[in-house]
Design a protein that fits this description.
It contains 13 helices and 14 strands. By secondary structure, it is α/β, with parallel strands linked by helices. It has 2 domains: 235 residues, Aspartate Aminotransferase, domain 2, CATH 3.40.640; 125 residues, Aspartate Aminotransferase, domain 1 (Alpha-Beta Complex), CATH 3.90.1150. The strands form 4 sheets. The chain has a 7-stranded mixed β-sheet, sandwiched between helices. Strands 12-13-14 form a 3-stranded antiparallel β-sheet. A two-stranded antiparallel sheet has the order 6-7. Strand 6 and strand 7 form a beta hairpin. Helix 4 packs across helix 5 and helix 4 packs across helix 8. It starts with 9 loop residues before the first helix and ends with a helix. The chain binds pyridoxal-5'-phosphate (PLP). Pyridoxal-5'-phosphate binds next to helix 4.
Length: 378
Amino acid sequence: MSSSIQMCDLKGQYLKIKKEIDASIQEVIDSTAFIKGKEVNLFQEELASYLGVKHVIGCANGTDALQIALMALGLKPGDEVITPDFTFIATVEVIALLGMIPVIVDVDADNFTIDPKKLENAITPKTRAIIPVHLFGQCANMEEIQSIAKKHNIFVIEDTAQATGANYKFKNGNIKKAGTIGDIGTTSFFPSKNLGCFGDGGALFTNDDALADEIKSISNHGMKIRYYHDKIGVNSRLDTIQAAILRVKLRYLNDFNTNRTIAASIYDRFLGDCPSVKVPGRTSWSDHIFHQYTLRLIKGGRKELINHLSDKGIPSMVYYPVPLHNQKAFEIYQSKATNKLFPNTDLLCESVFSIPMHTELTEDIQKYICDTIINFLD
Ligand SMILES: *Cc1c(COP(=O)(O)O)cnc(C)c1O
């Protein structure tokens, strides 16, 4: 059994929907409309309707989506943009590439998303935007973030690369999909994401018509009319083949996310009583659709545990080993960080590890993984 365990089983998932996927790809090849084929618009419309948002605009990847979002909001070099310390590098990278100043804020140690209280302390007169990241499949506290943003007149870009399809529950009972609450939502269709394609892909979501126009134009060389370039843009499109694959996979997204949620509750059941690990915390305000199932090790010894798991044929990963505030490439921004203490991110980077999470897990495999962890630690 152990030889077959994978961190993310893309092949097993593909085999279940192979017929539909293969047909969708063949159709694009037959049409030869590889760029801007009809599937791109159809997918954008279908994803918009799934999310309950007015506009979805595809682009080449999730990092581009973040960059295009910052450009579409008209942000300028020198503007400060707030982002969490515990996340993938993409957010801070695009902020810096555009000449803006990334301001890094610590996260909550239980749900791993940006801490709204620390966020408010990081706001200065130069702050123009906040990029909360809905990490590992669970939304940041958007209700508090939105109210802080409104108070200070700051844009909110939701990075929903790891949480496509998660529901956000407002205190008044309203429910919205991740990425449809702030000014712009961005996502990635990297193959291992909850909604993944067979290569690179990404998208932006917004309810604002003017912003949607801006996003479309910027992602297509800054033009609205062909060969008339009003703005400096980029070339960032979602390929037709990827859109065709995504149309098929979108129809299964709820099932896929349910499979992940069930797998997570099975892990909880097996590991919940183990004193040496802490199972992922859930918030009152968001679904958790488990892009990753991330445990915290209470007493250290992570390297030894990971090696032991690997010997037993169990893959695991550390997302993320280095806080953004310690990344070498971003050293120059450290003196500009208003809040220089990041105790929670420091703790998480030293103690987290993620175990296999995907749509094809079985209880047998999960039991083997958990028994192996418990036997080693206890
Ligand atoms: C994957 C990811 C991205 C980047 O997406 P790409 O499509 O790989 O560019 C951005 N933010 C987060 C949180 C991600 O997980």
